[in-house]
Amino acid sequence: MNTISEVLQRLEAIIQECRAEQSALGYFPALYYRMTQAVQTGIDQGVFENGARMEQLDVRFAQRYIDAYDAYRAGKPMTQSWQLAFEAAKDDNITVFQHLMLGMNAHINLDLGIAAAQTRTRDAIFGLHDDFNKINDVIRHLVDPMQEKLAEIWLPFRLLDRLLRTEDEGWINFSIDVARGAAWKSATMLAFAPDMQAEKKLIQDFDVVVASIGKGVLHPGFWISSGLWLMRRWEKGTVEEKINVLLAP
Hints:
mainly alpha; globular; single chain; 12 helices
């Protein structure tokens, strides 16, 4: 892939495949499709300092997810972080919210830093910093729509959202900032890796940490797990219908 349009086409194909199979693997790409569209809009509107460079980053970023998805489908090795996220699709007790968080964990906490270092190496990585941070704003603008979509899937979320309107959005945005900050740190470390072997070792080390975060999303403790179990019981719609909700404008 060389353009965001090609990324969107590939995501559409993955989503359609998951719809046909009623597979929970389709939840994250539905959200990711909306995020990618938002990045494309930002490029078109001149939000970023260098639109062409941002497109390069976005394509490399998306390629990480798509390669992992294709590897999983083919039974080939992949990062622990994505393996954990994809395997969760086999568990009917996992909520849509957890599926989205597992995907974002693997993609932001691991893939983003790698993609940034692939886009610009050595000192050139620092010229990417401002545009890298501007993606935070793109994701923030998706917080409200994402919560509305989750409320369509799990009705009590509307009440929870109203009660915690300021607090929950603050925590979501804080989490995004922390993830982006960690991704930038990993990007700079990878950009200055002395050789391929050192780069590979860094990625393996990052993957172990990110996978451990994913395990926490899957098994957050008794009380939270109990609440998530109830959430899953009350989710509305088939897998395909949930995918369509997440994908809708």
